[in-house]
Design a protein that fits this description.
The protein is of the alpha+beta class and about 130 residues long. It has 3 helices and 7 strands; from the N terminus they run βααββββββα. It has a single domain, classed as START domain (Alpha-D-Glucose-1,6-Bisphosphate, Chain A, domain 4). A hairpin with a 2-residue loop joins strand 4 and strand 5.
Length: about 130
């Protein structure tokens, strides 16, 4: 794999419940709704499960995702192709944490920051739509 080893751990506060976060982070069918800068393979399921695989694309770069771990408040994806490493999401009432490590030519921290901000905006829009 070409690129450099990168690692980042970010945690932000969000105005969202644990259930709303689980719905967004543990349901691949929801990903295209908030990760607008990525394209995803067709037929994403409603729930993650260990062993599930799918692809996303950032521009022309494909990233293969394999679900390694699913817990009530955490999901971990093994990544290959465009990023060789892992991405782990953890959450609870009012917070999200993203931990990512890998080798890539992509600026991993920039993508991670953008993902968190997109999710935060998506969740706040959903709260406004319900209120």
């Amino acid at each position: 794999m070409f690129g450099t080893f990168q690692q980042s751990n970010l945690r932000i506060e969000v105005n969202a419940s644990e259930a709303a976060l689980r719905s967004s982070l543990a349901s691949p069918a929801q990903f295209p709704k908030w990760l607008w800068f990525e394209r995803f393979s067709a037929g994403l399921p409603d729930a993650v499960r260990p062993g599930l695989t799918f692809k996303s694309w950032v521009g022309a770069i494909a990233i293969h995702h394999q679900v390694e771990l699913v817990e009530p408040n955490r999901v971990r994806f093994l990544l290959s192709q465009g990023i060789d490493g892992f991405h782990e999401w953890s959450w609870g009432d009012g917070w999200i944490q993203s931990r990512i490590e890998g080798i890539s030519v992509l600026p991993i921290n920039l993508g991670q920051t953008l993902s968190l901000l997109c999710l935060k905006q998506f969740l706040s829009q959903g709260i406004r739509d319900q209120g």
